[in-house]
Amino acid sequence: MARIRSIKPDFFTSEKIASLPLSARLTFIGIWTHVDDNGVTLDNERLITAALWPLEDDPREALQRTSGDLARLSKERLIYRYEAGGKRYLFVTGWDEHQKISHPSKSRYPRPLTMEYTDPDPHSGNPPESIPSPPESLRYEQGAGSREQGAGSRESTPVLPVGQLTDRNARARVIAPTAQPVNSFAARATLARIPRYRGDDVPGWARRRLADMTAAALDAGFGADAIAYYAGLAIGSGEFKAHQHIPELRHALAWLGRDAALGTACQACGHEPGTCPCTPAADPPWSEADQADLEAALRHLAAEDELVQEA
Q1: Are 253 and 218 in contact (CB under 8 A)?
Q2: Under DSSP, is residue 115 helix (H, G, I), strand (E, B) or coil?
Q3: Is residue 96 part of a domain?
Q4: Sheet holding 87-92: strands in order across?
Q5: Is residue 138 pLDDT above 60, yes or no?
Q6: Contact 187/212 with Cβ under 8 angstroms?
Q7: Does 65 lie in the same domain as 164?
Q8: What is the model's pTM?
Q9: Does any domain span residue 139?
């Protein structure tokens, strides 16, 4: 579904954009309307051509032209093409900088974890590099000026699929309710398993916010074991200070949501699927001893039937 996007005047004065063929510039603008609110779409040249150029007289020529435009945009690092979960995706690299989505819809596709380029930047002459990808969209809000995180960007960002941000106030703490009633008891019981979040140094308002975030994750289908496990991973990373409870748990939930979406973490316990305790053990193969036990049981039942009939 096409979406309304904005174009800054700087687009027409950019040297990088000016170096592109006119068709590549139009394709680049068209991609903005085709990707989701997270800046990602399926990397399928046929689907992109059908969405951007549906009325072309020669569909084959349009497909060939679009394929070349995408290759040029990727070479200029305006888009990034990658694979996740066995599917190919396309990400607009400057999405968060140039597109501000006030009420983003739920993300449909995962963003790249990193953006690794095999060719040097054609405009810098630098060697190939690996650029960290923007944060995943499976999170609440980042750097929103909360008491724990300090000053930061006040632009709204994609949120966890269980809820949507309402119009943000000065503290950016208002979150729309989830579809199901918040199970505060289960959320608080989950937080009680994390020593860092149950100490007296956690203010009451922060406890309530942590409980709301945990309840939303529980409503989304994540298990208490998985939440506690990933919270421990986030705490152990040392990325956050001791008083940054809210951004720390937000990071843990985003991490869990991303790994679960990629199939590398069990949604119930957080461990790798197939090796986690949630995976049922496989039945052992049928052995000769099993066959002998079965035959003995059948003979015993047959004998009991004969006694019943004689009685």
Answers
A1: no
A2: strand
A3: yes
A4: 40-42, 87-92, 79-84
A5: no
A6: yes
A7: no
A8: 0.40
A9: no
